[in-house]
Design goal:
The protein contains seven helices and no strands. It is mainly alpha-helical. Helix 1 runs antiparallel to helix 2 and helix 3 runs antiparallel to helix 7.
Length: 228
């Protein structure tokens, strides 16, 4: 009976980690694609390292490495790998909860930093021509916005992405809201979804830790697997 439970737990953990590994590879690939095709430095020069592409890339690497660690530990019934998997998951959960608390505590300061950085990015985009405004074109089209606060931020160099239809008409209609306000509104609208996602992620990590520790204890009692 105990051996049957051990095998069931082992293969369940292998399957779950293999699934997470494939998801991690997908996230990593998408992050690499965004990094090549979308330069966040043109929008936020100082905060470019915290861009969506970089965060997805780092998240993908972490997910693939941790899931591979759990898969290999369960498959080989290696107590050292299982314990390492447990500790890494525990550390990641603490980091996620700490980051969530810091975002809530310093929301206004983060908003000011984003505002200052977007202003710097727009100033650089106005100085340059050609591909330098591509990222701003994407942002303004996707969020239906113009400039940081409004169209006046662009001065006399208003890009075509600021126009609702066409800038060639005698009296073009510009997008009314600034991108900072639109991004803030989008974040507030998705705040509940983000919170639920963090909670679900923490639950998955807790389940992973429970599975790893249960398998670790079963292997220790049965005397199977590689010893520490």
């Amino acid at each position: 009976m105990a051996q049957g439970c051990l095998k069931c737990l082992k293969y369940t953990m292998c399957f779950a980690n293999l699934l997470c590994f494939m998801c991690g590879v997908a996230v990593l690939s998408f992050g690499a694609y965004l990094m090549v095709n979308f330069k966040m430095a043109a929008l936020t020069p100082t905060l470019a390292s915290f861009s969506s592409a970089n965060m997805l890339l780092v998240s993908g690497i972490i997910i693939t490495c941790v899931s591979f660690l759990g898969f290999l530990g369960a498959l080989k019934e290696n107590r050292c790998l299982l314990l390492t998997f447990f500790l890494v998951l525990f550390f990641l959960m603490l980091v996620e909860l700490t980051a969530a608390c810091l975002l809530l505590m310093y929301e206004s300061e983060i908003g000011k930093m984003v505002n200052d950085d977007l202003t710097k990015g727009l100033a650089r985009a106005k100085e340059k021509a050609g591909n330098s405004t591509n990222e701003w074109d994407v942002l303004q089209t996707q969020f239906d916005c113009c400039g940081v606060r409004n169209v006046s931020d662009w001065g006399n160099k208003i890009p075509a992405s600021c126009c609702v239809e066409s800038c060639d008409s005698p009296n073009p209609t510009y997008r009314k809201m600034g991108c900072l306000e639109k991004m803030k509104t989008s974040f507030e609208e998705n705040f509940l979804t983000t919170g639920i996602s963090v909670i679900v992620l923490c639950i998955i990590e807790v389940l992973g830790m429970c599975f790893a520790m249960t398998l670790f204890c079963h292997i220790s009692r049965s005397g199977l697997g590689y010893k520490l």
